[in-house]
User: Which sequence fits this backbone?
């Protein structure tokens, strides 16, 4: 592929518009039909859904603060709007699942060790890279997880929720990958290689933690450990290639290095 054939990074304004348009283009969730979820189905997935619902629920304050600093640094005010649109979408996922749990009579979760660990990783160092890296890894697993939940139930409401979240998360993974490609763009090759090695170590831990925490629901959706492991790595390999800066044509936006040397 020549450099001319490479795709460009989606601009922040385009992402902002995507999240705005997507909010107006939501699938119908047939709440009016009632849930019709069987106790047997619920027993397999309820505990896991409670934890995942909590994970989708965040006011986004830390992220918005990091996004604000980053937007100022790169001189891209649309970036903050794009991130705000992304946060709203995640909150919508949390609301859908919360409403499902409420209707099913399952209490919502207030805290979870996996969620706390994940939040700590993001809050420890409030930079866009430290934020986007665990998020893209969890979202990669979300693509498998919600497919498993969809397979584990005949409940039309839950199946519609899963379909909506799956459609949204495909774009979320792209959003984080492009962001990481921008951040990795000016890193020397050896440091990029080292970063990707660390990603693999971290991803191994995230995959194992998600399996330990959610194996019952994953099994109910047809994912034994082998299938889950292979699917997770296959999806993450796609994400890694989407965050490779050499896979993009960099024609318009100046690089961070250029901005920094210009005193921006
Ligand atoms: Fe989500
Ligand atoms: Fe997401």
Assistant:
């Amino acid at each position: 592929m020549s450099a001319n054939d490479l795709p460009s990074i989606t601009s922040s304004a385009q992402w902002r518009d995507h999240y705005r348009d997507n909010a107006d283009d939501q699938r119908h969730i047939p709440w009016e039909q009632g849930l019709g979820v069987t106790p047997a189905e619920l027993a397999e997935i309820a505990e896991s859904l409670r934890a995942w619902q909590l994970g989708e629920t965040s006011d986004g304050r830390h992220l918005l603060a990091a996004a604000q600093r980053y937007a100022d640094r790169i001189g891209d005010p649309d970036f903050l709007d794009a991130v705000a649109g992304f946060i709203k979408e995640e909150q919508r996922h949390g609301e859908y699942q919360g409403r499902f749990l409420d209707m099913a009579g399952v209490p919502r979760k207030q805290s979870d060790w996996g969620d706390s660990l994940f939040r700590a990783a993001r809050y420890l160092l409030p930079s866009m890279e430290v934020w986007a890296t665990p998020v893209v890894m969890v979202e990669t697993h979300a693509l498998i997880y919600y497919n498993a939940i969809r397979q584990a139930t005949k409940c039309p409401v839950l199946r519609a929720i899963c379909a909506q979240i799956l459609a949204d998360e495909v774009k979320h993974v792209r959003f984080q990958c492009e962001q990481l490609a921008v951040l990795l763009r000016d890193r020397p090759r050896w440091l990029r290689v080292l970063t990707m090695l660390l990603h693999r170590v971290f991803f191994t831990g995230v995959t194992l933690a998600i399996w330990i925490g959610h194996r019952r629901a994953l099994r109910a959706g047809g994912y034994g450990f082998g299938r889950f492991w292979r699917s997770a790595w296959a999806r993450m390999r796609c994400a890694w290639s989407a965050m490779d800066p050499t896979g993009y044509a960099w024609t318009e936006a100046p690089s961070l290095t250029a901005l920094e040397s210009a005193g921006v």
